[in-house]
Amino acid sequence: MSEHGYNLYHATGPSPDALDYAQPWAHVGPGATQVETGALDAATVHWFAIRSVDAQGREMPTAQDEIRLELDDQSRRVSDRPGGVLAPSARPLPHGAVRLAWRYRVGLTGVVPRVFRIFSDGGGGLVNYGTPLGEVPYRNDLSAYAWTSGLLAGGVAQQLAVRAIAVGDIWDDQPAVVSVLPDAAAPASVNALGAEALL
Hints:
Number of domains: 2
Largest sheet: 5 strands, antiparallel
Radius of gyration: 25 Å
CATH topology of the largest domain: Immunoglobulin-like
Order of helices and strands: EEEEEEEEEEEE
């Protein structure tokens, strides 16, 4: 397919799924190497994509690239974030502990996390992201991760959240949250306690 120009696409949303390839945002000729937009919405994640077009107007069926641009509330660019955690799950363990598991793969931005931090709402409904319960380091040879909590408030449903955090304290877009009901049973009592003197 001989390139006769390019169709450009633009959308806003948390993922490139927001891009609508049925309606180009702009078209440029084959010699174009850059294009300027108008003012973009602040505090928004923008997506851009490009597809080449031949002389008959036939478009390449796949995007040559999809670019993410996040702006803060002052329209300044936000550093690219690591992708979020995938498939979180949690199960209660005996005596109030919880086993939390998740999967991870590096997202479209290519940003690699340094660590995963775990947070809880303590049963109150609002996750406290200021004080982590624990953390697990990222490893590029792993896709599955797990973490075991200490004693949590038994008998009270809790929300646990996992965040991927990159160097520079750059957090992922949104948390992966899962609910769990820790075991309310107290540890079994000790029986037949005795003592003897050793000479």
